[in-house]
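dumping this here before i forget
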Amino acid sequence: MRFYIVDAFTQELFGGNPAGIVLLGEKEFPEEMVMQKTAAELRYSETAFVRTLESGTFHTRYFTPEAEVDLCGHATIALFHALFEEGIIPEEGTFTNLSLAGLLEVTRADGMIFMEMGAPESFGRIENAKALRALYSVMGIPEAVGYLKGGLCPEMISTGLPDIMMPVKDEEILHAIKPDFPELSVLSEEYDVVGVHAFTVEATDGQIHVRNFAPRYAIDEEAATGTSNGALTYYLYKNGLLKSGDRSVFIQGEAMGRPSEIVSIIEEKDKIRIDIGGRAVTLATGDILL
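structure:
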């Protein structure tokens, strides 16, 4: 099996978020145990296994070192970068990706890859004072409780994977986050979310800065998370900070020394559609001998 290691949401090696990609051609997926062990061996936050169903249509399964997940944004960006480098898809075009999150559209143009997110869904706001204190305390920033500017408060949202969108006042508090990872894993299980996506809309550079934590799936912090920033795009739209047609840039991974840029576009016509995109670079290729 051909494999790639790709840094997604960056133009520079060792930036962005690395993903493992396993290209199966038209072969069936290996046994689930084999894919899980392969993902654990590669040790990246996600590894994507992809089959070619027909020209321009692909079926992808995503594995963390611990479990299979429905969808992964950065691994999808990495995947379609690898498909292009392998000569399987052209430099520009629109393609279809079948995942556990549904049949989603992926577009490659001008060196960037954009993927359609799953339909946005909210699972409720966290407004109770006791619950707020518990959340912010687990994140190591109890002093940030009560930041409700413009009605902002934590909310559980999914565009493929559910996360808690957690607003903080500024970059200083964002960078001060030091989660109690065992407790955050327990809290994530209680809310049945992947993890917490912390953000501030009041950065000095005018961009939206974010950090993502998912110890429930053996990922203490991620440098770039497409699905989470898709969910955050919907959160900001719901709260009147974005409007249909807006293009946003999320800066992530700074605390890890792997700066990433994730671009989102939101449009509402017959339904709300969110696309997440960015660039990618290949670190390594090779063969898995199975």
